[in-house]
């Protein structure tokens, strides 16, 4: 029998078989910032734009020979300024020691510094996505607190607290309450969605295609619209009696072998809504973010713009005092919501 066998090599030069790869399953999409228009560089951290509305139709005639006796200025009462602040997104600085960068050989990583920088850039994009999809209110930098940009959930609101005065949302341009659904996502009905789209149509008068960024629970609630319906056989509402039947709706041909149970597009009387699932919808309170997978945003992306200051994600070198090269990723951006009247929201609490 051989004197040197495989188990005897332990601790005596036996190499570890470490594959040259790193498995990563976290590849979450950022639909809001991906679909939003990229605006011009803000001229100031506080930037403004105008929203406008059209007058109501006028009925009745004019007596022949009557002189003009009154005048209307269409900018008064119809046009108003909206505003927001830009925000500085600075990620945690990364540093790699000189030995790690130049000597060590790490499986699956060719360049440790570049690897860490790529992680910071991804973190920056996700941080922007979380902020812009949130209910964060705007804030001015006063030397003690930083600039904060108002998130889209704050703009789609009947309260009008998007930005501080004078940038607050004027009452004439606040989202109507019928364009905001409340309650629980489990109680979502096609009638409620139709009512939301009707409310937006009442403002715009146009049949539009909307992009809805929805949490995972809300996406399931849409699919549940195709699900099982129990038919009651008693006179008491909501009580299923003996012999009740169940109806299941399938999105497939009877002869198909694939079971399809998903709603990706909702087409109603007043618009079409394309659903984009996202894990980055949430609320921000006291600097902490909380995921809210039961909420959703109904957006006309023509009204949404993100204004970036300089590079979308600038990588800056920090001084190396002997500890190794260091980098920091920083971006500046602010949200523009052209007119909140043309947007809607699923503001569910569960």
Structure write-up:
It is a single chain. The protein is an alpha+beta fold and 350 residues long. The chain has one domain. The protein has helices at 31-35, 98-102, 112-132, 152-155, 190-204, 216-224, and strands at 37-39, 46-52, 79-85, 87-90, 94-95, 180-181, 208-214, 229-230, 246-247, 265-268, 271-277, 282-285, 288-291, 296-299, 304-318, 326-337, 344-346. It has a six-stranded mixed β-sheet. Strands 1, 4, 5, 15 and 16 form a five-stranded mixed β-sheet that branches. The N and C termini lie far apart (69 Å).
Radius of gyration: 28 Å
The number of domains is 1
Total DSSP helices: 6
For the record, give the distance between the C-alpha atoms at the N and C termini, rounded to a whole number: 69 Å
What pattern of helices and strands is seen along the backbone?
A: HEEEEEHHHEHEHEEEEEEEEEE
Percent helix: 10-25%
What is the averaged pLDDT score? 80
Task: Write a short abstract of this structure.
By secondary structure, the chain is an alpha+beta fold.
């Amino acid at each position: 029998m051989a004197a040197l066998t495989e188990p005897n090599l332990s601790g005596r030069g036996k190499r570890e078989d470490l594959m040259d790869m790193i498995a990563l399953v976290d590849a979450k999409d950022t639909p809001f910032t991906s679909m939003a228009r990229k605006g011009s560089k803000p001229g100031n951290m506080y930037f403004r734009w105008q929203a406008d509305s059209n007058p109501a139709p006028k009925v009745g005639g004019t007596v022949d020979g009557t002189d003009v006796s009154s005048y209307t200025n269409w900018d008064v009462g119809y046009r108003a300024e909206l505003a927001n602040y830009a925000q500085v997104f600075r990620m945690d600085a990364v540093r790699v020691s000189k030995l790690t960068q130049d000597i060590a050989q790490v499986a699956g990583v060719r360049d440790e510094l570049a690897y860490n920088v790529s992680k910071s850039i991804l973190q920056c994009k996700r941080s922007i996505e979380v902020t812009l999809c949130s209910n964060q209110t705007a804030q001015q930098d006063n030397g003690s607190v930083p600039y904060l940009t108002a998130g889209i959930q704050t703009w789609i609101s009947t309260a009008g607290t998007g930005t501080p005065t004078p940038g607050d949302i004027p009452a004439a341009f606040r989202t109507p309450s019928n364009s905001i659904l409340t309650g629980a996502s489990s109680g979502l009905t096609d009638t409620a969605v139709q009512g939301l789209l009707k409310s937006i149509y009442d403002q715009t008068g146009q049949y539009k295609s909307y992009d809805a960024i929805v949490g995972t629970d809300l996406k399931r609630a849409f699919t549940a619209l195709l699900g099982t319906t129990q038919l009651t056989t008693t006179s008491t509402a909501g009580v299923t009696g003996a012999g009740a039947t169940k109806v299941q709706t399938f999105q497939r041909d009877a002869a198909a072998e694939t079971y399809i149970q998903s709603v990706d597009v909702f087409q109603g009387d007043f618009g079409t809504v394309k659903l984009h699932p996202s894990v980055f919808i949430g609320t921000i309170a006291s600097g902490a973010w909380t995921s809210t997978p039961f909420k959703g945003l109904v957006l006309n992306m023509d009204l949404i713009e993100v204004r970036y200051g300089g590079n979308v994600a600038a990588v800056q070198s920090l001084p190396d005092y002997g500890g190794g090269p260091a980098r920091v990723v920083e971006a500046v951006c602010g949200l523009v919501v052209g007119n909140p009247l043309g947007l809607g929201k699923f503001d569910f609490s569960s």
